[in-house]
Structure formats: structure tokens, C-alpha cells
């Protein structure tokens, strides 16, 4: 039996299909391999890797990555090839470019140039991938240019994500700085008001109470009704003096400045004791801490005690203040009615605004704040912050 005649056209078709399949595989590898690499690289390394991949894919030996901002200030963010020759490409940034453009410049030092736009999510170009070759070559086919455009789009998506992330981080940093300034201004204003009240209204009330006491001591016997009125006035004056001192202590307790956090929190806990709530200390730490640490933890404890008095309906509170491995921890636990933790603290709106403020105070010092609560199961508040922000204790 005679073998079939060899058909040259059939062999040519097979070779053509093989080359086409090789080209498609190369394009696919370009996109897949680069896509996997970009997720693991920093922005500068991303740019350089894409230039190297693009040059290798089209067998071109020079490349620039040009990017511009909203003011169309163009800058070179990555380069590949001879630096002197690359200077001839820097003027090729076209902010209005929408599609890839191939140029042939036979008399130029880089006779072939391919420009591919980097487009953002809004479709507008914010950069361009510029490839060139020192030896004249034929124009790449449509599929190669499309693959390169996909590569540029992939890089653009990563760069835009990084830009958005950088903007978000900067915005968060600005917000944190503003909150920090707000808390600091609030503390300064509280301190000023406390001193003004102490030197003004509190002294006046104390003087008024003393004068009334002196008057009552020198006053001749009064009818029963008038005597009762005088005692009521004395009690009211004494109550005003006590309220003034409590107001001053709440604004800026002198015990915090004079004796430290432990004594200040324990004195604040007197409000619980006065309300008939049993208070115990689990762990006590009398060490002095940096001023900002003591103020932040005191305000957290103060807000926690306010919540117990206003909402918890508790009969027992356990306080903890400890220093361990450079971390100062404050804990306020109550056996009250608790509440359901349906949402994160920073998304709960006004209902948990106090908890969000506590969390923010701890966060500004690089610490953590946690709140664990269950309906009818009590509430546990814990704030942990670095204890050596200034390197040494106060």
C-alpha cells in the first residue's frame, strides 16, 4: 500500500497554527505571570517589572513609564535602557491619548516607538508606557498591542489602587491628628476652666458658706420656722460648695497631677461608692506614667464609671490598673445589665459615642480598646496603651 502524498500546504498550515498558538501562549504568560508578580511588589518595583516584561515581550530595548497628576505635571517614574537615548522619549507624553500609537522615525536614534496609555477607572489617562528600539523593527501585530494594552491596564489598576490607599492613609493620619488636637485642646480648656472655677466661683461659694455659718453662730434664737429656713440655706450653700468641688474635679482632678492615675481613678470611683455600688481593685499599680497616658486612661475610666452610673444598674464594679512589659492596662468590669454588641463600636452612632471616644483615645496613643458585653451579663472595658511614650515616666 502506497503512503499518501505529502501536502506542503498542509505542513505550512500546521506550522502557522503552531506559531499562532505559541504567540497566544506567550501573551497569556505575559499577563498571568505579571499579574501574579504585581500583587507581591511595591509600586516602584511594579513599574520596573512591567517595563522589563514589556520590552522582553516585544523584543525592544528601551522603555519609559511617564505619569502625570491633575495639574498635568509629567514625571518619569521608571526607565529601562540607555539613559541618554531615553531623554528623547520624555517629550512623548500625550495626556489626551486614548489608544496605543506606533511611530516610525527612521532618522532618530530610537527609530521605533510604541506608546500605550495608562487609564484610570474613569477612563482618563494618567500615564503612558513608552517603548522604543535602537534598531528598526516591523510594527507589532494587533494582538501583541492588545496584550500590551492589557498589561498597561493591569499596572494602571494597581497604581490607582495604591494612590487611593495612600490618599486614604493620609486622610486617616490627618483625621487622627485633628482628633488628637481636639482632645488636647479639650484637656487644656478643661484645665483652664477648672482653675478659673477654683479661683473664682468655688472660692466665692466657700466664702459664702463660711459667712452664713458665722452669721448662724452669732444670730439670736429665731422662731422655729425661720430657724428651719436658715438651716436649709446653710445645707444648700454646703451642697453648692460640694458640687463646685466635684465639678472642678471632673474637669481636671488635681489628684491626677499630684498623686497619679491610681489615686485619681480611685477618687473617681467614690461616685460609685456614693451610689451604693461596691468597688474592688483587682490589681493596683502606683507607678507614675507619662502625662498623656495618665490623662487618656483617666478619661477612659471616667467615661466607664459614667456609663455604669447611667446605664448599667450594677451592684459591683471591679477595677484593674497594671503595668506589664511596657504596656499600661486599665479595666473596668461591672455586673450590670449589659447590652448586645450587634455592631462595631465605631459604627454604632450616638448610642455608643462614649465607647467610640474611649477607643479613639487609646488608638491615638498606639494602644487598643476592647468592650465585651452581653445582655444581662455585665460589661468589661479594657484599654491597653504603651507606658513609655516619652521614654520615661512622668
Automatic annotation (TrEMBL):
InterPro entries to which the protein is assigned, alphabetical: GAF-like_dom_sf (IPR029016), HATPase_C_sf (IPR036890), HATPase_dom (IPR003594), Sensor_HK_TwoCompSys (IPR050482), Sig_transdc_His_kin_sub3_dim/P (IPR011712)
Subcellular location: Cell membrane
A GO term for molecular function: kinase activity
A Pfam family recorded for this sequence: HATPase_c
Domain Histidine kinase/HSP90-like ATPase, first and last residues per copy: 292-389
Cell inner membrane as UniProt keyword: no
Its membrane topology: Multi-pass membrane protein
UniProt entry keywords in alphabetical sequence: Cell membrane, Kinase, Membrane, Transferase, Transmembrane, Transmembrane helix, Two-component regulatory system
Keyword hit for RNA-binding: no
Domain of life: Bacteria
PANTHER family for the chain: NITRATE/NITRITE SENSOR PROTEIN NARX-RELATED, SENSOR HISTIDINE KINASE NARS
Name the UniProt record assigns to this protein: Sensor histidine kinase
Organism placement in taxonomy: Bacteria, Pseudomonadati, Pseudomonadota, Gammaproteobacteria, Pseudomonadales
Amino acid at each position: 500500500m502506497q503512503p499518501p502524498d505529502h501536502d506542503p500546504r498542509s505542513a505550512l498550515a500546521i506550522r502557522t497554527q503552531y506559531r499562532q498558538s505559541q504567540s497566544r501562549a506567550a501573551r497569556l504568560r505575559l499577563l498571568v505571570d505579571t499579574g501574579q508578580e504585581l500583587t507581591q511588589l511595591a509600586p516602584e518595583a511594579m513599574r520596573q517589572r512591567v517595563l522589563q516584561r514589556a520590552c522582553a515581550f516585544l523584543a525592544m530595548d528601551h522603555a519609559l513609564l511617564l505619569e502625570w497628576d491633575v495639574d498635568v505635571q509629567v514625571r518619569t517614574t521608571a526607565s529601562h535602557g540607555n539613559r541618554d537615548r531615553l531623554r528623547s522619549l520624555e517629550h512623548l507624553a500625550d495626556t489626551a491619548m486614548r489608544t496605543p500609537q506606533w511611530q516610525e522615525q527612521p532618522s532618530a536614534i530610537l527609530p521605533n516607538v510604541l506608546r500605550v496609555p495608562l487609564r484610570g477607572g474613569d477612563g482618563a489617562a494618567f500615564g503612558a508606557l513608552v517603548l522604543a528600539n535602537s534598531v528598526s523593527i516591523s510594527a507589532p501585530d494587533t494582538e501583541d498591542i492588545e496584550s500590551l494594552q492589557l498589561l498597561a491596564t493591569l499596572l494602571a489598576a494597581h497604581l490607582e489602587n495604591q494612590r487611593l490607599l495612600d490618599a486614604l492613609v493620609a486622610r486617616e493620619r490627618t483625621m487622627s491628628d485633628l482628633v488628637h488636637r481636639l482632645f488636647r485642646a479639650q484637656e487644656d480648656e478643661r484645665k483652664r476652666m477648672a482653675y478659673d472655677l477654683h479661683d473664682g466661683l468655688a472660692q466665692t461659694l466657700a466664702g459664702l458658706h463660711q459667712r452664713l455659718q458665722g452669721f448662724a453662730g452669732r444670730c439670736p434664737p429665731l422662731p422655729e420656722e425661720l430657724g428651719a429656713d436658715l438651716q436649709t440655706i446653710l445645707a444648700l450653700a454646703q451642697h453648692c460648695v460640694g458640687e463646685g468641688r466635684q465639678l472642678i474635679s471632673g474637669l481636671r482632678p488635681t489628684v491626677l497631677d499630684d498623686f497619679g492615675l491610681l489615686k485619681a481613678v480611685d477618687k473617681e470611683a467614690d461616685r460609685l461608692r456614693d451610689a451604693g455600688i461596691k468597688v474592688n481593685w483587682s490589681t493596683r499599680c502606683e507607678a507614675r506614667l507619662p502625662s498623656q497616658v495618665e490623662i487618656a486612661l483617666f478619661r477612659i475610666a471616667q467615661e466607664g464609671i459614667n456609663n455604669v452610673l447611667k446605664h448599667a444598674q450594677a451592684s459591683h464594679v471591679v477595677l484593674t490598673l497594671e503595668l506589664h512589659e511596657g504596656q499600661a492596662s486599665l479595666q473596668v468590669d461591672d455586673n450590670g445589665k449589659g447590652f448586645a454588641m450587634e455592631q462595631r463600636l465605631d459604627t454604632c452612632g450616638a448610642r455608643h459615642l462614649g465607647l467610640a471616644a474611649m477607643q479613639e483615645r487609646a488608638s491615638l496613643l498606639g494602644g487598643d480598646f476592647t468592650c465585651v458585653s452581653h445582655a444581662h451579663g455585665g460589661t468589661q472595658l479594657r484599654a491597653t496603651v504603651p507606658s513609655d511614650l516619652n521614654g520615661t515616666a512622668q
